[in-house]
Specification:
8 strands, eight-stranded mixed beta sheet, 250 residues, 10 helices, alpha+beta, elongated, single chain
Length: 250
């Protein structure tokens, strides 16, 4: 995104020489009490880290509201040091999938775990937010998801789209230290952990593969058996009486 668009989003972080305050710098200013909390924080001027989730415009900036940053610290015990790495974590996220409740939001399964986190961490990103007539991708929440396997399965059963991150293909193959539902593991295997999928596409693909297998398994008469049948038919013909059928040709 261009400098002027970023300036409209948050003029405080764009300087006269065209340089932009990093997200780290913004967080430092926030912790020091000098950040204008009415302005959103710009995590990244572009969205390359989440572009693998189909339909996300990578030219849009990623933003997060100050209220969200504070909520992450106070409610979810995710401090500024953690939040400062969010763009990196999104870039290395294992999977993304459509939200069950918000059509314009995607959920990202983060590559992040520690002894303090009992459940997988997910980030929610809304990709149709409008700030001062500028469209942005907004991080609306980051939190540990309890019953993650049930949540993932419900998303799949509702035919929502899933998106694979090519950068973490090897990690997701090993299930990345968390339990994936068998349906998701099978779906990932079918598409070779690449691209996107939903339940309907997997069922269609599986149906076609089964038809091919069934066709290949059709009974074929062995050569030896075919020769026996042919000999048997010849024997029957030899025993047929060649009597007059009553037709007079004179």
């Amino acid at each position: 995104m261009g400098i002027e668009e970023l300036r409209r989003i948050n003029s405080d972080i764009v300087h006269e020489d065209g340089s932009i305050d990093s997200f780290d710098r913004q967080l430092i200013d926030l912790s020091s009490g000098v950040y204008n909390v009415t302005n959103p924080m710009v995590v990244s001027p572009e969205s390359k880290s989440i572009a693998f989730a189909g339909g996300v415009d990578k030219s849009k900036p990623i933003v997060i509201n100050v209220s969200t940053v504070i909520k992450l610290r106070e409610k979810h015990q995710l401090g500024y040091a953690f939040v400062s790495r969010i763009n990196e974590m999104l870039d290395k996220s294992y999977l993304a999938f459509d939200s069950l409740v918000q059509d314009t939001s995607r959920i990202f399964l983060l590559d992040e775990s520690s002894e303090l986190q009992a459940y997988p961490l997910i980030a929610v990103c809304r990709y149709d937010k409008n700030i001062k007539m500028i469209e942005v991708n907004e991080i609306t929440s980051i939190y540990e998801k309890t019953d993650f396997d049930k949540f993932l399965l419900k998303t799949y059963e509702n035919n929502k789209n899933f998106y694979c991150n090519e950068k973490t293909k090897a990690s997701i193959k090993s299930h990345a230290g968390f339990q994936l539902p068998r349906e998701i593991i099978d779906a990932l295997s079918i598409i070779d952990y690449s691209g996107s999928f939903n339940k309907s596409q997997i069922e269609d693909t599986t149906s076609v593969e089964l038809e091919v297998i069934e066709t290949q398994q059709e009974v074929v008469i062995p050569v030896e058996e075919a020769e026996i049948i042919e000999e048997s038919n010849s024997s029957l013909l030899e025993n047929v009486s060649m009597e007059d059928d009553g037709i007079d040709f004179d």
